[in-house]
Amino acid sequence: MAHGRPRHRALVLGLGAAATPHLRALRELADRVEVAAAWSRSAARRAAAAEAFPGLPVTADLDRAIADPSIDLAFLLTPPDAREALVGRLAAAGKHVLCEKPIERTATAAERIVRACEAAGVRLAVMFQMRQREPARRLKALSDAGALGRIGFVEVRVPWWRPQSYYDEPGRGTLARDGGGVLITQAIHTLDLLIHLAGPVREVAAVAATTCLHRMETEDFVAGGFVLESGVPGSLFATTAAFPGGPEQITIVGSAASARLEGGTLLLRRAGGGEERFGEAIGTGGGAAFMDFPHDAHRAVIADFLDAIDEGREPSSSGRSALLVHRLIDALLSSARRGVRLRVEG
Q: What is the side-by-side strand order in the sheet with 8-13?
């Protein structure tokens, strides 16, 4: 028991690169949750995870782990194309699910997963850890309190870099496995944070392309404009072709103050003079070392997920809330393909 609450038992599905920050966070939350089984279909990945995390109970028997009634929650860290079938099995077994982003490859598939979890009465959370960074939490509080005044416009920039070797891994940047390129795999975090801070997007106009800097099926460059439900206009630039890669940015310009989130920092400039800085620069995975970021925000998302289960409420990063960014990404790419301005489907 931790703080009078039951200790959970978890199944980890998928032991690729995305598993590392989850497993580090789970190790620090061992008083609240025990990893009962860690599965990968790859024997090499099971061996590598067992070496990196001594004592990790790796398994090749997924059926047995899902059937184990003592395991009440699962961390779904597989590539997106494997998610829907696995969520169906986990939900049917009564296990709550924390899923890596994206939920699935399209908004339609993501909606099916959300509905499956709701129908089964299990919680679904999505790993949108940028919401939990302290500077982002501070900006959310300031914005909600009206400290920025009337919002004039917003700007999103994700000037990241991935070497060709990243896309040479089988399935990377393909529609079949990932569902897309820079938007659904990288910029989804920053776009989700924008929606969290400023509200949903109602209309978009975008251009998407695959630059000469990468050999890949899907887009590594997207630029465009959008209008929030509030009527506030905004601009977007996202790429994985900006060598050597830099921190993502969200800028919100208001009548009383402007705010810029950049990586792990917040700069607040007040219209009447003066500025304040919060946080410190951190690795964000924007360059070739794409896992170069701390895991404290992962830990916060997982802790909230456990709280949600214990308290019978929705997680802060719920599956239903994540549908907003999935619909936005679908609309941006559809706008780019058709060369038209589109409303975001609700």
A: 58-59, 33-39, 8-13, 73-76, 96-99, 124-126
